């Protein structure tokens, strides 16, 4: 097996064009590495072009990874990025809506700007990117190809958590969008699914741990234990575990799986 090849990879996505939003770090970067190992050609979207370029340089040449700066809260930015991606790598066959942002606040202290930010990034961004890719995905499906939309939601889209009402509402919306769009596209060769990670070992969680520690005066270890406690396996989820689930949904073996919200959370009860 070649160095850097995933043990489950067998070029399952060979030559297919996959667009990943929020690809620069954490779960998005793990997804990029996994889909590249499976043979996909990649477009990497995110706000920080330098970070995307650094990731692209680490990926195999076969991925032909194209890093593009994109603000998913701007319709103009999204459609411009997708046009550039299409011009460089052809029609989009796989869309992974991974970009997201989490902010916390007690509901009584939450202002309208906080609420709107969470909707704009987590829900409307997913809507806009899906609209930008949809014509390509339908064309791929009509030609007998395997077109895939995978939305990275959260266990917060399956249950409530205190102090993240806006984030949870947005992620519930992503799952509703996933289920409805799956029904619309089921007979058109396009599957639509959501992956719902629990607390995952990413910069976002590390930053959240630091905020909790700073606000409460507890140690970072004690704050981290609060995040781990909800996982029956007693640990944070690894980004590669989320990426493996995405890769499976993009493969031939998941052709009959659509409209699902798959929890990757160590058995957390929803």
TrEMBL record:
InterPro entries: NAD(P)-bd_dom_sf, Sc_DH/Rdtase_CS, SDR, SDR_fam. Coiled coil: none annotated. Transmembrane segments: none annotated. GO terms for biological process: monocarboxylic acid metabolic process. Pfam families: adh_short. Belongs to the short-chain dehydrogenases/reductases (SDR) family. This is Short-chain dehydrogenase.
């Amino acid at each position: 097996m070649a160095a850097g090849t995933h043990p489950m990879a067998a070029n399952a996505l060979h030559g297919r064009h996959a667009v990943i939003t929020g690809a620069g770090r954490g779960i998005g970067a793990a997804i990029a590495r996994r889909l590249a190992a499976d043979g996909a050609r990649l477009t990497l979207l995110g706000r920080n072009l330098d970070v995307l370029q650094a990731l692209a340089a680490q990926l195999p040449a076969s991925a032909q990874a194209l890093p593009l700066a994109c603000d998913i809260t701007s319709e103009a930015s999204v459609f411009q990025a997708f046009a550039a991606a299409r011009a460089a790598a052809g029609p989009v066959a796989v869309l992974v809506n991974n970009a997201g942002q989490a902010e916390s606040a007690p509901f009584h202290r939450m202002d309208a700007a906080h609420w709107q930010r969470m909707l704009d990034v987590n829900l409307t961004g997913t809507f806009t990117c899906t609209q930008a890719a949809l014509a390509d995905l339908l064309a791929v499906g009509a030609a007998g190809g395997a077109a895939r939309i995978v939305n990275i939601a959260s266990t917060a889209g399956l249950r409530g958590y205190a102090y993240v009402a806006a984030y949870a509402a947005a992620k519930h919306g992503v799952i509703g969008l996933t289920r409805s769009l799956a029904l619309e596209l089921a007979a058109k060769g396009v599957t639509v699914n959501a992956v719902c990670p629990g607390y995952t070992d990413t910069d976002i969680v590390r930053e959240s741990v630091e905020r909790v520690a700073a606000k409460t005066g507890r140690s970072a270890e004690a704050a981290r234990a609060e995040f781990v406690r909800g996982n029956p396996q007693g640990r944070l989820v690894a980004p590669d575990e989320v990426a493996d689930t995405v890769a499976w949904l993009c493969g031939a073996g998941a052709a009959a799986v659509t409209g699902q919200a798959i929890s990757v959370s160590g058995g957390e009860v929803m």
